[in-house]
Amino acid sequence: MPTRSYLLKSVGLVTIITAVGKVLGFGRESIIAAYFGASSTADVFFVASLIPTILFTALGSGLQAGVIPLYLEKKAENPLKADDFISLLGSFFMLVAAVMTMACVIFTKPIVMLVAPGFSDAELELTESLTRIMLPSLLFFTLSYMATGVLNANKRFILPALTSTAQNTVIILATVMFASPLGVEGLAWGFVLGAASQFLIQYPSLKRYNIRPIISFLAHGRQIVQTLYTFYPIIIAALAIQLNSVVDRIIATSLETGSVSALNYANRLLWLPLSIVLTPLITVLYPSIVERALISYNSFLGLTLRGVKSLVFLAIPFMIVMLISGNSLITLAFQRGAFDASATETTNTAFFFYSAALPFFALRDYLMNAFYALKKTKVAMYSCLFAVFLNVLLSWLLSRHLGVGGIAIASGISMLLQSLYLFCFLWHKGDRRTDAASFRDALSEVGKLSIIGTSIYGFVLWLHPIALTFPIIVELVFVSVLVFGLYLALSMVFKVSGLQALSRFKSK
């Protein structure tokens, strides 16, 4: 079991590394925005990148989330057999990835027509071309996710955290070097090279384990089938999560030009605090949650609820800053070159409503991992399918009246209800008499933080017109310092337990 100091050190290192990667990610998006703006060409690229992204997320999430519980369980029995198992599993998923890649290359045209029904003939043709260029990235992403699962299971978080830095650096270089002579195709090739870099940077650390290709699948047919039975709910859940993005972009293709790009840029900005601050905590806690689940449900639940309180505590001040200064953040991040004030306004419409759901994006991912640790994969799958259905319905209805803002509202509502469903199921599964105090404490904490956050939002929003008279950097610093300062002070005054929860992740 990891000690408190080890967990805190790991979270700190992963956070710093992730921050560097996300700063580069912003540089990547900013450069793409400068070259292509919120234009039809940018819309085409982001839709084309959806297809390999959906496929690799389905396979990759299955590997990364599913490998850790199975690997740790087998490693406790026999470390050598655990390495053999992962070698077999990784080889099988690579075969699946290769077959899927070839199938998508053959059927690219109908797939593109399905995901971009609002595109013109010229846009569809370009989308088809870019998709074929980017499809081989599925193979590299599958390798990368397998490596990440193995390394994280062995409590090696540094190189997996560097994958974002490697990918963003490669895409930035490719955009600068090839966007002018090759146009958007240069960006597509950068996407493929960036995918390859994610695996290559992890390979040196992966070599110390006996992970190797295994092609004798028939000899291990029963083991593969049993494992796939465990994995298929995780894969379906990952596909469902990606379908939310697909639905958003499909509906956005029927709105004004630039709507797809606006959603993409708003989503990227939303994931900055998620990736830098919240995801590292989720990543580092996951192996420990799996270990607790193997011991007892009460031990698992204690750590899981501390994680819930910590995530909500960390998410609220970021959410407030983003709600108040969203327009300034978008202007600073993207408004240059082909990305003009009109694109900023459209992007901010989506960003505002995405920001309001920030805590639920984090909680959804965290609670999904908790159910994977319990091997309750079907519950996670059903929650994702419900969220997709709700998102499809609400996105279609709300976008008719609110444009891209309606699509963002639909995503937020689906995240909220999915998180509540998963949280309630945890309570229902345990001993409700024994665990009632823990759940009441968690709910009380969320309520207390909501009141504090609402009060700070109202006060800082009232002062915001004064901040708008400052240069944009000064405004953002002023709002951020004020929000975080007040939040920390009020949390201490009202004895918010999220502060203590952050320092209590230790073995019992």
TrEMBL record:
Q: In which pathway does it act?
A: Cell wall biogenesis; peptidoglycan biosynthesis
Q: How does it sit in the membrane?
A: Multi-pass membrane protein
Name of the molecule in the record: Probable lipid II flippase MurJ
Pull one GO CC term from this UniProt entry. Answer: plasma membrane
- Membrane-spanning regions, if any? 6-24, 54-73, 85-113, 133-151, 227-247, 269-290, 311-330, 350-367, 379-398, 404-428, 449-470, 476-498
Task: Please list the GO biological process terms of this entry.
Answer: cell wall organization; lipid translocation; peptidoglycan biosynthetic process; regulation of cell shape
The Swiss-Prot or TrEMBL record describes its family as follows: Belongs to the MurJ/MviN family.
Q: What does this protein do?
A: Involved in peptidoglycan biosynthesis. Transports lipid-linked peptidoglycan precursors from the inner to the outer leaflet of the cytoplasmic membrane.
UniProt source species: Peribacillus muralis
Pfam families listed in its UniProt record: MurJ
Q: Where in the cell is it found?
A: Cell membrane
Q: Just give the chief location class.
A: membrane
| Single GO MF annotation | lipid-linked peptidoglycan transporter activity
Q: Which keywords label this protein?
A: Cell membrane, Cell shape, Cell wall biogenesis/degradation, Membrane, Peptidoglycan synthesis, Transmembrane, Transmembrane helix, Transport
